[in-house]
Design brief:
heterodimer, A: about 160 residues, alpha+beta, Ubiquitin-like (UB roll), DNA polymerase, domain 1, 2 domains, five-stranded mixed beta sheet, 5 helices, about 15% strand, B: about 280 residues, Uridine Diphospho-n-acetylenolpyruvylglucosamine Reductase, domain 2, Uridine Diphospho-n-acetylenolpyruvylglucosamine Reductase, domain 3, Enolase-like, domain 1, five-stranded antiparallel beta sheet, four-stranded antiparallel beta sheet, 14 strands, globular
Chain lengths: ~160, ~280
């Protein structure tokens, strides 16, 4: 099929098999290897990307389902070499250990802060329940999302004033 | 495992594609693609129904609320209409999988998979949900109870697809309750699910009770013997004890990797107590 898709802000047209998994398209065809494959069956969250701003599992999505849509991966978050506040917060709080689960956590956190700029710790924990970290870094991951939320809110206040 | 993935843009195209050969219908993919990955299914053709749905929004239609088959659990969980009218459905939608799965998985997919442990089915059985099935000849209506005939089995025929669900309105005097017992909170398939709708008289007598259980029989069940027994009675210790005995005879759980048959029975029986203490229950919706 002829796929028309926007990935990390770039409009692309590609000839692909319609049953190609989105994760394989992103990693193999486009080289966005920040998208990780953990379990491949929707249980770990490592392959999370945003499709039109909504978090989905790219291992359980086929390219034909996202024709015409906008995809955001971890590679599309930073602007002009500057990390996204969620990325920066993960670095600072030590929310990253081996790093394999990190892109998935960050994408789902970006979605959360878009919908709810001031989540409680409990709301954060519930929102990231589909992402698994085997280095057991959940406390620092929640810390990171809280820190990012705080900074993004004060950044918005600055813009408003 | 390679297959042809077809994404028809309208209903007419969907009907013709279904006539052209064997197929599996797709409405989300969180079950279908897992089964394909694990080699439990190997369809030659997969047809996405999304494009056939012309009314993709949850909407009020007279006395009923219409939910498109392709509504995701996140949409249902967040819908102000569903939260206002059917708290038990919103609650069961929130119990599904995790954020990303709720963004992808649809209620139509959940219904057609007909799993005895499907979270949302509890709410549909309690609310007497109706299904609109469409094929080239027209549409027909079935209740959820008529539609599902066994584990993974439904009355969906070749050339037909589930288009929408219609939920009849219900008095706001009902208390809605949903509980999922699993080994952990997220991403788990239930050991036992239970939900009820309860309407009491001012003196505490049960006016109407609807009680449903999941994962303890080949289908979701309505525990009708309990519903009938408790009607007109107070929810005191003796009556609840009798209701527990009745539940035991209503269910026929199997043992599997998630829990033994005996454990499931104990959980199901114990959950009856939740009907008695609704006034201070943390799970009351």
């Amino acid at each position: 099929m002829q796929l028309e898709i926007t990935v990390n802000g770039k409009h692309l047209e590609r000839q692909v098999d319609e049953d190609l998994r989105l994760i394989d398209f992103l990693r193999e065809e486009l080289g966005f290897t920040g998208v990780k494959e953990g379990c491949g069956v929707g249980e770990c969250g490592a392959c999370t990307v945003l499709v039109d701003g909504v978090s989905v599992l790219s291992c359980l999505t086929r390219v034909a389902q996202v024709d015409g849509k906008e995809i955001l991966t971890i590679e599309g978050l930073s602007e002009e070499g500057e990390l996204h506040p969620v990325q920066q917060a993960f670095v600072e709080t030590g929310g990253v250990q081996c790093g394999f689960c990190t892109p998935g956590f960050i994408m789902v956190a970006v979605e959360l802060l878009e919908l709810n700029p001031d989540p409680t710790r409990e709301e954060i924990r519930e929102w990231i329940e589909g992402n698994i970290c085997r280095c057991t870094g959940y406390v620092k991951i929640v810390d990171a999302i809280e820190l990012a939320a705080r900074r993004m809110r004060s950044e918005e206040e600055k813009v408003e004033t | 495992m390679s297959f042809e993935l077809l994404v028809p843009k309208d209903e007419e195209k969907l009907f013709s594609l279904m006539e052209e050969g064997d197929y599996k219908l797709l409405a989300g993919g969180t079950d279908l693609f897992v089964k394909i990955k694990k080699d439990l299914l190997s369809p030659d053709r997969v047809i996405d129904i999304t494009g056939a749905i012309t009314e993709p929004k949850i909407a009020e239609k007279g006395e009923k609320i219409s939910i498109p088959a392709t509504a995701t659990f996140q949409e249902i969980a967040e819908s102000p209409l569903v939260n206002r009218e059917f708290p038990v459905l919103a609650q069961s939608a929130r119990a599904v999988g995790a954020t990303q799965l709720r963004n992808m998985a649809t209620i139509g997919g959940n219904v057609c998979n007909a799993s005895p442990s499907a979270d949302s089915l509890i709410a549909l059985y309690l609310l007497n949900g109706e299904l609109t099935l469409a094929d080239r000849e027209g549409e027909r209506r079935l209740t959820i109870n008529d539609f599902i005939t066994g584990p993974g089995k439904t009355k969906l025929t070749r050339g037909e697809y589930l288009k929408s669900l219609e939920i009849p309105g219900i008095s706001e005097d009902f208390t809605h309750y949903f509980e999922k017992v699993g080994r952990r909170n997220a991403l788990d398939i239930s050991v036992c699910t239970m939900g009820y709708l309860l309407k009491k008289e001012e003196d505490g007598t049960v006016e109407e009770l609807r009680l449903a259980y999941g994962a303890v029989a080949p289908k979701i069940i309505r525990a009708t013997s309990v519903e009938e027994y408790l009607q007109g009675k107070k929810l005191n210790r003796e009556n609840i004890a009798e209701a527990k005995k009745l539940v035991r005879s209503e269910i026929s759980p199997i043992g599997d990797i998630r829990g033994s048959a005996e454990y499931r029975k104990k959980v199901a029986v114990r959950l009856v107590e939740k009907i008695g203490n609704t006034s201070n229950s943390a799970n009351e919706i």
